[in-house]
Amino acid sequence: MNSEIRNLEPKALWNKFADLNAVPRPSKKEERVIQFIKDFGESLGLVTQTDKVGNVLIKKPATHGLDNRKTVVMQSHLDMVHQKNADTNFNFDTQGIEMYVDGDWVRARGTTLGADNGLGVATIMAILEAKDIEHPAIEALFTIDEETGMTGAMGLEGSWLQGDILLNLDTEEDDEIGVGCAGGIDVTAKRTYDEEPFPEGKVAYTISVTGLHGGHSGMDIHKGLGNANKIMNRLLFDGFENFGLRIHQIKGGSLRNAIPRESFATVAVDTIHAPAFEFEMEALAKTIKKELALQDPNLTIQVTKTDTPRMVMELGVQEGVLKAMYAAHNGVYTMSASIPDLVETSNNIAKVTIENGEVIIECLTRSSVESSKMDLVNTLRATFELTGCEVTTSGDYPGWAPNMDSPILKVMDKLYQKLNGEKAHVAACHAGLECGILGQNYPDMDMISFGPTILGAHSPDERASISSAQKYWRFVLEILKEIPKK
Prior knowledge:
The chain is α+β, with helices and mostly antiparallel strands. Helices cover 30% and strands 29% of the residues. It has twelve helices and 25 strands. It has helices spanning 3-6, 11-21, 31-43, 115-129, 151-155, 228-243, 274-291, 315-327, 370-385, 407-420, 435-441, 466-481, and strands at residues 47-50, 56-60, 72-77, 99-102, 105-108, 138-143, 165-168, 176-181, 183-192, 195-197, 202-210, 215-216, 246-252, 258-259, 263-270, 300-305, 311-313, 331-335, 343-355, 358-367, 390-397, 425-429, 446-449, 454-455, 463-465. The strands form six sheets. Strands 9, 11, 13, 15, 16, 18, 19, 20 and 21 form a nine-stranded antiparallel beta sheet that branches. Strands 1-2-6-3-7-23 form a six-stranded mixed beta sheet, covered by helices on one side. A hairpin with a 5-residue loop joins strand 1 (47-50) and strand 2.
């Protein structure tokens, strides 16, 4: 299976990616991949260090003739988003990613691929191992936990790195040179409720929302993709308004940084209303699927009778939560006034859990403007507090302000045009990159971000372009030869 991946060009890159993808590496559980990278660096006889949070640093001296160039920090994160389709039997804690070639794309079987940011990690590994690639002195920085809090970058000490230039390999369009990114903050609304015995004369149903595209809650938030939690709430609100629907349980979404693809609810309605309820749900499902036919053609909404649960949610709290979920902003909040087509501020209602007397609603709010970010946070806070929730924030991380006078940007912009016959797209992105955090401890470091084309990141549709990886690899090698002198 992975043999076809290992035969792709450039083999140095794809072989390291195959090695990496054999190691389980979900966020917050990076112990094995940290050891894997440490063993790799030590096997090459290179100086290999780890810091107190788990980041790994491997140092490689310059090749002959380039020891008068500035030291380059090549940086990628070790963890990956763990998402799978509901019908895929896979354990991210114990299994390596199962990959296959599909035309010009490398994909995974029913799971995320880990090209974000595994191709960046593999690039650095290939250069560290190579004996025939020209490069200046390299500090290879492998950070942890980028996807669920950026705690690796946040924990990095200001004295650890000596490099002058940072190449972050975590951009997902091969014609883009990244010079800025959004910051982010987690917003969590919680409250408790009393459970009531399942009322007599009611019938129970399971409602499922599946088949959505999902995707990266930063890079894909502007595409109008369906959010399973918002769709589920629309169905439940309609059932409550028209048939007095009662909620037993809701489980929707899984990760803050992924647009939720699936949601499941167990509900009850009066037996006398059951036929009308089923008809109404079918009609509403058709309407929603028609609205999302272009963005999410595989959306499936099913309503099926199920066993009677023991308890249902307290009626008053249920009404408040359904209304708050309807009112809570999801998607693009503002577009940038200074950078065309750039999302400035957005929110992803990522995860909704209602069961056993507790409501938990988890969001990720992003913005390249701090004041706009906090404005949206306050909008969400006010919405959820009106229904009795306690709202907390955590994981706040800064954006990365563009520097259009960056010396490494000028080098890369010129090289890209020379190699490809056209200018690169120099841009900021709405995703969160570690550059903003790293820049707090290394304010004088010249930073840039780039990478090969990866589509569908943070979803089981994640795929990496083979031809783009070849284009990107040539670019990397030329950049390393053209690093400015000290």
